[in-house]
Amino acid sequence: MPTKIIAVANQKGGVGKTTTAVNVAACIAAAGHPTLLLDLDPQANATSGLGIEKLEGTSSYRPFLGEGGLVDKIQATAFERLDLIPSEVDLCAVEIEMVRGENHLRRAAELLAPIVESGRYAVIIIDCPPALGVLTLNAFGAADGILVPLQCEYYALEGISMIHRVLEPIRQTGVNPKLELLGVVMTMFDGRTRLCNQVVSEVRQHFGEAVFETLIPRTTRLAEAPSFGKPIIHYDRYSAGAAAYEVLTQEILKRLKIIA
Predict the structure, then answer these.
(1) Lesser CB count within 10 Å: N end or C end of the chain?
(2) Contact 42/223 with Cβ under 8 angstroms?
(3) How far apart are CA 6 and CA 146, in angstroms?
(4) Are 86 and 58 in contact (CB under 8 A)?
């Protein structure tokens, strides 16, 4: 089966984007499917969230500028079947330094092509920066689908409206005609509040079946896990957060047609 590439994106920060990227990647790997997480966010939170140190020269920065390939940047993590291409603060400079040539939005797709062709991974997950800049648009240029985490709060829909406006031009200009919205996942859900339930209801009305059934709860254990360099299923296997990400991952694998 061909490798599937998922871009986890929302230009609004603080919505659980990196938490979702790290934990979905870990759950896919734990379900038996070799997974690569590409950290394209210069903040490198996905890198530290997997217990990997942020070191200069270890990221995709140089390959983006035409120096070397991504294969050499792959690192094994402490978790079986889960590998990482780390990030570093230098990635910020890609926005300025990458030559805006004809195919500058296809650079990530070109860099990932040898990894995809190797058949080494079932899924590649890209953690995008919280902005619709060159790095995020490159992720869209390489991805099969976009996974959008939305926080259960009043301004949630603002986070997805711009992504919808970008999707169509990416497809129509030929940058990536196959790009789809894989789905919307509601994060930081607190069932005790009327607002959370109201937002979920509105988002479901707006996006219908694009919204995953699974709601990711707001929990202390989920918030703690990154500081220990562990995904939630390896930090607290029986927590509500771990259960939610495992169920969400099953939904994602079905949409990707990796499982029936």
Answers:
(1) C
(2) no
(3) 6
(4) yes
What pLDDT, in 10s, does the model give residues 198-253? 999 989 988 899 999 999 999 999 999 999 999 999 999 999 999 999 999 999 99
Query: Which strand (E) or helix (H) includes residue 189?
Result: strand 180-189
Quick one: tokens of 116?
Answer: 């995809």
- Best CA proximity match to 146, nearest among 7, 3, 248: 7
Closest Cα to residue 104, out of 112, 113, 95? 95
Task: Report the C-alpha gap between 182 and 248 in whole angstroms.
Answer: 12
CA distances from 28 to 31, 48, 56, 125, 221 (A): 5, 19, 28, 10, 20
Write phi, then psi, for 161 (nearest 5 degrees).
-65, -40
132: DSSP letter: -
Closest CA to 46 of 75, 70, 5, 68: 75
Residues 6+ apart with CB under 8 A from 131: 11
> What's the angle, vertex CA 43, arms to CA 41 and CA 47, rounded to 5?
75
**How many angstroms separate the Cα of 249 from the Cα of each of 137, 139, 158?**
24, 20, 25
Rounded-to-10 torsion of CA 222, 248, 216, 108: 70
Confidence of residue 100 (pLDDT cuts 50, 70, 90): low
Task: State the pLDDT at residue 99.
Answer: 64
Which CATH class for the 4-255 domain?
Answer: alpha beta
Name the one residue in this structure whose structure tokens are 């929990």: 219
**Phi first, then psi: what are they for 187, rounded to 5°?**
-115, 165
